[in-house]
Every structure is written in C-alpha cells, then in structure tokens.
Amino acid sequence: MLVKQIYILAVVGLMMSACGASEQELFDEGVRQLEAGEYSKAVGYFDKVVEKNEENTSAFNAKGVALFQQKKFDEAIKAFTSSIRLDSTSYKPFFNRGNAYLEKKAYKEAIRDYNVASGLDAQQVDVYYNRGLALLAQEEYEDAIMDFDMALQATPDQALVHFNKAKAQLGNNDPLGGMESLINAINLDNNNGSAYYLLGVTQMSALNQKEEGCANLKMALNLGYADAQTWIDDFCKE
To answer: Where are the TPR repeats (predicted)?
Structure first.
C-alpha cells in the first residue's frame, strides 16, 4: 500500500527577540532535522516551539509528521489533533491524521478525515488517492473507483493508481474494466509483478484466456511474484 506524502503547514510563528533561539528559529531547525531524517531531534525542536507558544498549530502538525515517519502513529494522531483544535481551516493536519489512521487500518476514521480534507481543499489529488485506498480496504468499491478516477484526471501516469483502481473494479465485478486498468498499470510500470499476476488470473478465470493468462503469470513469476507458481503448476503445464 502506498500512502502519498504528508504535509507541513506554512510557518506563522512570531520571531522572539529575547535570549536564546526564537520560536521561528526553533521551528526552522525542526524542519531541517525532519528533512534530514532526524525525526527524534525534530520532535525535540517542535516541543521547544510549543513550550514558547502552545498555540503554534504548525509545530503540532510538524511534530505529527516527524512521529508519523517514526511509525508512532498514535502519538502522531494526538499531535495532528492538537493542530486541528487550534486551527481547523487547513486540510493538511486532517489529511495527515487520515494517513496515520490509514496506517493503523482504522479505515472509517481515515475516510472521515479525508472527507474533511477534501472539503477544505478539493484540488489536493493525494486526498482522493488515499481515500480511495481506505475505501478499497472497506470494500466500498464504487466510491473507491470514483476517487481513483479523480486522482487519474489530475495525474494520469500513476501506475499504482491504475493498479488499485483495477482491484476496486475486480471487486466490483468488472473484469474487463479491471483488465484495462491492469494493462495501463503495466504499460506505466512493467516491473509490477503483482499487476501481471492479477491480470493473468483474471484472464484465465473470467475469460478463459489460457495462453494470455499463462504468459502473464510467468512474467509475474519472473518478477518475483511467487504466488504465480501455483497457478502455473495447476493450469499452464502442457
């Protein structure tokens, strides 16, 4: 499962002129540490920002990003929630919290946050894709397809979006549409063994296309998708 990027809010902190680093300087250093992959250090700097100004929504959101990168999803959710309580007008902490819920497989909560994020900024393509993933996991296939289509309207050359749309179409009993999406995914990324596997299985099971299906299953196996071996053994031996 691919989760698209998370976001840091624009800096709005005040410059502090007294002794020591200013609120802004601490925040900027936290962002530098975050971008350098020093997530624990980044959390420390954002905590220092909050000590100076407990209403700095950007610091809470950025802290949540650093915690998310450490896979501390419960702590990240707490930080994003603090950011939202201070300022509920930005889609970013809602989107970020939705991503944390998605990682926890709390799909209903993720969808709720993605709905708010989309309502606040309907132009953010990542919201549609990630909500589509959550809807797919909930087996809400038609709604997932709609979200993947929205994502593809903006960025049509995303192989993983086509692949996950295919899974939703197959779940929605649309093998022809699913195969079209799988072919699109393969054309954009011919190293996707799982796409070849799913295409081969669908060709054989839905359309009885043994020759084409076996060819795609063998390609999947060559790309390291071991589950293809069972199908090849059972159906592709002469």
So the answer is: 23-56, 57-90, 125-158
